[in-house]
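[step 3/7] fold_predict: job queued, chain A
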Amino acid sequence: IAALHKTRLESVGAAGSELKAIISRALAALSRDLYSGAGALLAELVQNADDATFPHNYQPRLSISLRQGGLLVTVNEVGFSASDVRAICDLGASSKDISSTAETIGRKGLGFKSVFAVSDTPYVISNGYQFKFDVGGSLGLFGALVPIWVEDTELSQTLPSPLGGHRQQSHGDGTLFWLPVRGLPPSLALP
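[step 4/7] structure written:
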C-alpha cells in the first residue's frame, strides 16, 4: 500500500495540480454520469460481490447494513490479492478474468468508484490489507486513486461497534468495506 501510495503521488510529479485537476474532473464526470444515486451504488456493491472469488463449498454471502453514520459492507470471499488492490486503486483496470469463459458481470474497472457518490473516506479491509481513500482532503478526487494504509488504532476508532478493532487476519476471512456516509440525514444516523 505504501509503495502504491508513493507511486501515485510521484506520478503527478511536476504536472501536479494540473494533472490532479484533470483526473478529478474525469472522476467527477464518472460519478455524476454513471453513479448517481444510492441505487447505482447498491447495484455496484452487489455486482462486485457476485464477481468475487469464494472458497470452495462456501455459500456466498453479502451483507450491507446502515450502522452509526455509514454503510458496512461485508463479503465472505477469499479476500483481495495484490492485483485486486492495484485494480481498486486505478481507473479502468480490472483484476477480473474477462476471458470468454469467465462468468463476471463487471469488467470495466470503474465500479468501486461508485462509493465516492456517498463517502469521502471509504475503508477497505481484506486479506491482510487495510487501507482507505480520502477524496475530502488536499488531493480532492485524485485521492480516489491513492490508497492510505490504516493502522489498527484508527480502525478501532473508526469502525462501528462492535467491529472496532475488527481486522481480517488471513486468507479467506472475506472483505469488509466501511463507507462513512457524507451528509447522512439525522433521521438515518444511528447512535
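[step 5/7] annotate
The helical segments are 2-12, 16-34, 38-51, 82-88, 152-158.
The two ends are 32 Å apart (CA to CA).
exit 0
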